[in-house]
């Protein structure tokens, strides 16, 4: 899934904040080198080093998790993927999702019903060859949410169930 412009910046805010904290800790560490060597300078250096490492690890974890959420999950099909477009579209309408963009038989961009402050999760579904590709992320206007990951996984699972339910029965 691709985010553009301001959506990209908003989605990656947690990573950017952790990176900013990492830079502040690095500046504090460099500053501590110029202080007279006493107990306070060592304490500042140790604290800055701890902050640098912990915020760096958090930034890396957020970045990996966010990139993972933006990846499409593949649902292999036995027939052409375009065959499942109508059933996936019907399931989206039944779930009450708003269709933001669609190309008949190619892709669907949808958004779940939001609340007063949130717009809802975004779902992107592509129909390519013998695969249906699905990705779901939290509302990009609020950024990445660890709590919202379960809802996004449920949206991906719903699309997977719809596609798998529409597969022809295998003959033995």
In CATH, the homologous superfamily of the largest domain goes by the name Kinase associated domain 1, KA1
CATH architecture of the largest domain: 2-Layer Sandwich
Content-based structural category? alpha+beta
Largest sheet: 5 strands, antiparallel
Could you explain the architecture of this structure?
- There is one protein chain.
- The chain has 172 residues and is an alpha+beta fold.
- The protein has 2 domains: 6-69; 72-165, TATA-Binding Protein, CATH 3.30.310.80.
- It has 5 helices and 5 strands.
- The chain has a 5-stranded antiparallel sheet, with helices on one face.
- A hairpin with a 2-residue loop joins strand 4 (122-128) and strand 5.
- Helix 2 (13-33) runs antiparallel to helix 3 (39-70) and helix 4 crosses helix 5.
- The longest helix is centred in the N-terminal third of the chain and has 32 residues, at 39-70.
- It is elongated and about 75 Å long.
Give a brief description:
The chain is α+β, with helices and mostly antiparallel strands and 172 residues long. Helix content is 51%, strand content 17%. A five-stranded antiparallel sheet has the order 1-5-4-3-2, covered by helices on one side.
Annotate the secondary structure layout.
Elements lengths: L5 H6 L1 H21 L5 H32 L2 E4 L8 H11 L2 E6 L3 E5 L10 E7 L2 E7 L11 H17 L7
Antiparallel strand pairs: 1-5, 2-3, 3-4, 4-5
Question: What are the defining features of this structure?
Answer:
single chain; 172 residues; alpha+beta; TATA-Binding Protein; 2 domains
